[in-house]
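User: Reviewer 2 asked us to show a designed sequence for the structure in our supplementary figure. I'm pasting the structure tokens here. Could you produce the per-position amino acids so we can include them in the response letter?
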């Protein structure tokens, strides 16, 4: 009997007489051959999750099994591509069907007509194992595509050829162990099922940081290469901009950006902006090391789940070549909503807030595919997949199931604060609630500065103490505070505005390397220590910071006029630079905050990266000189 549809419920279709079908097998549904996947088997009945719009699908239409699970094509030509959730190239679909994707339309994921120059790395007669290097292809001018033995094959190379080949042409032949049939043809491309993680030799400890160029992350809440992080936040708190910034600046060889259920205008911005951006490290278009997977909110809901697995499989493929890959998933909440809708169509027992009971398991299965590993093969290749997932809790409520289940498996938590976003403080990562479970202190000590841990620890402690003092200020006012705590509030303000705040679209401040972060932080903490020392040694007087006064008076009005002659040593001893002009201007703290050095601290963001140490040392000397002059 023919296999036919007997029920249609949104993206879920039930078919009967589908004998021999397997779980997660791809099924062609209906007259148009829509892409679907088996998610439940009951006798000869199969429940199919359809990844395309099922409008107009009727009972009685045929279904056809393909005999294979949902797979992605892997090979040269992936970089710079834009796919939908099931790896259909969107530019080709537009050429075939226009601006809106027609149902049933298909296209090859990778260009089958383009030729690639293949250089063998083995000779005929060599015995190879899974993951061994067969040869290389220059995919871009700065990235070599390593053609590897598929993870399921081992045997002896009978033939290997050099030259220009398309993906479908044979580059060699391999006789598998124990196989007396004809040798297997080797090609530049291969396939892999998206729901099964690619194997590796062993997983390594996450002891190397993934630099993002964002000071609040790298200094206080770093993520390791091969680690996992989540960015939860309410509407308008900057999740998408944060992920786009990480995609631009993260210390990764390749970026896979998955727009899972996001609004069309947000993905349009990514699709329009990334091809125009220049990679600061290679001076080439950023798209040459990026793969975009666009699955917007108006696309079929079931395809959101496929998009996540498609992205992680592409990332694992480049990881096995020995590259560091960063996967940006924006947003996993939309994936959870897809699971909830499909679960409801299947009439499963709901869990908390209607999500399926297996939500935590699915999240854990996805995040555990991240990691820094030793790849298969005789070569010592080390690669990593770092997963950063945005979470969109309704109303910014972090107690909802997606956020809580993500917290259990993520190693870093970058909680976005709507209050900070409203004050235009970006990145709006709350330094009180955020955390990182990765111990990367030794790496920073070995590669940046021996006192890195002490500096970042002191700065974070000051910020936490500032938050406590601000709660007291709300009750009793700032006038009741002692001078030391008033100084703490001013330093906290400098840390927040001159260090944590960062302009994502600034030519220099968009990315801040760790060495510059260290010197910026060291300058601010030196200013705090010198200010505290001045306050401590000054005779106790009533010093009141007038709330009506500006936070920092105009520096131009306070800088003393240049003298016609150089002052003598005796003049310097009595009236050092700036002391005359500042001698009678307000309290000690007001005079300290009006020093020219404060304006210099606020301009540290504009330092050229290579000049950070030189300018930092000079500014520290200026701090010690100007604050030492206060009495």
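Assistant: Here is a per-position design you can include in the supplement:
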């Amino acid at each position: 009997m023919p296999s036919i549809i007997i029920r249609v419920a949104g993206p879920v279709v039930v078919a009967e007489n589908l004998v021999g079908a397997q779980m997660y097998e791809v099924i062609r549904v209906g007259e148009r051959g829509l892409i679907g996947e088996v998610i439940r088997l009951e006798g000869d009945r199969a429940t199919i999750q359809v990844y395309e719009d099922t409008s107009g699908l009727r009972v009685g239409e045929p279904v056809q099994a393909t005999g294979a699970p949902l797979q992605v094509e892997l090979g040269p030509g992936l970089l710079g591509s834009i796919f939908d959730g099931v790896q259909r190239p969107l530019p080709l679909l537009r050429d075939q069907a226009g601006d809106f994707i027609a149902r049933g339309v298909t296209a090859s994921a990778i260009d089958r007509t383009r030729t690639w120059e293949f250089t063998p790395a083995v000779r005929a007669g060599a015995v190879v194992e899974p993951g061994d290097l067969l040869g290389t292809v220059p995919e871009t001018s700065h990235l070599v595509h390593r053609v590897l033995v598929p993870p399921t094959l081992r045997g002896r190379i009978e033939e290997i050829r050099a030259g220009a080949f398309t993906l479908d042409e044979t580059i060699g032949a391999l006789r598998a162990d124990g196989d007396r049939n004809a040798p297997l043809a080797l090609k530049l491309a291969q396939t892999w099922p998206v729901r099964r993680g690619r194997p590796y030799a062993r997983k390594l400890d996450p002891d190397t940081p993934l630099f993002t160029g964002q000071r609040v992350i790298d200094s206080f809440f770093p993520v390791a290469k091969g680690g996992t992080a989540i960015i939860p936040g309410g509407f308008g708190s900057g999740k998408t901009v944060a992920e786009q910034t990480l995609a631009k600046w993260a210390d990764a060889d390749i970026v896979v950006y998955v727009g899972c259920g996001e609004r069309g205008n947000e993905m349009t911005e990514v699709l329009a902006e990334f091809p125009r951006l220049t990679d600061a490290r290679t001076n080439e278009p950023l798209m040459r090391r990026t793969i975009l997977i666009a699955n917007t909110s108006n696309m079929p809901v079931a395809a959101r789940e496929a998009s996540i697995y498609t992205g992680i499989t592409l990332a694992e493929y480049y990881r096995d070549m020995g590259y560091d890959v960063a996967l940006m998933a924006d947003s996993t909440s939309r994936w959870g909503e897809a699971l909830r809708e499909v679960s409801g169509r299947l009439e499963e027992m709901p869990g908390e807030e209607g999500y399926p009971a297996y939500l935590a398991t699915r999240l854990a299965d996805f995040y555990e595919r991240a990691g820094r590993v030793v790849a298969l093969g005789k070569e010592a290749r080390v690669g990593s997949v770092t997963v950063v997932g945005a979470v969109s809790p309704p109303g910014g409520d972090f107690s909802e199931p997606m956020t809580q289940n993500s917290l259990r498996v993520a190693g870093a938590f970058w909680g976005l604060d709507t209050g900070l976003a409203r004050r235009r403080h970006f990145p709006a990562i709350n330094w009180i609630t955020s955390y990182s479970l990765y111990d990367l202190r030794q790496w920073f000590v070995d590669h940046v500065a021996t006192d890195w841990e002490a500096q970042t620890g002191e700065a974070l402690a000051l910020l936490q103490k500032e938050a406590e003092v601000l709660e007291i200020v709300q009750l009793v006012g700032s006038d009741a505070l002692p001078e030391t705590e008033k100084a703490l509030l001013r330093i906290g303000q400098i840390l927040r505005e001159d260090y944590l705040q960062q302009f994502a679209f600034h030519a220099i401040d968009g990315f801040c390397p760790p060495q510059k972060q260290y010197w910026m932080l060291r300058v601010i903490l030196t200013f705090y220590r010198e200010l505290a020392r001045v306050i401590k040694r000054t005779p106790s007087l009533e010093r009141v910071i007038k709330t009506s006064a500006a936070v920092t008076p105009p520096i131009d009005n306070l800088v003393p006029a240049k003298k016609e002659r150089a002052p003598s040593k005796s003049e310097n001893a009595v009236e050092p630079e700036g002391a005359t002009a500042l001698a009678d201007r307000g309290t000690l703290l007001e005079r300290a905050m009006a020093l020219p050095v404060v304006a210099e601290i606020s301009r540290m963001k504009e330092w050229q990266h290579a000049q950070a140490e030189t300018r930092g040392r000079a500014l520290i000397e200026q701090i010690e000189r100007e604050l030492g002059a206060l009495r």
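For the response letter, you might also mention the following. The chain has a mean pLDDT of 89. The longest strand covers residues 382-391.
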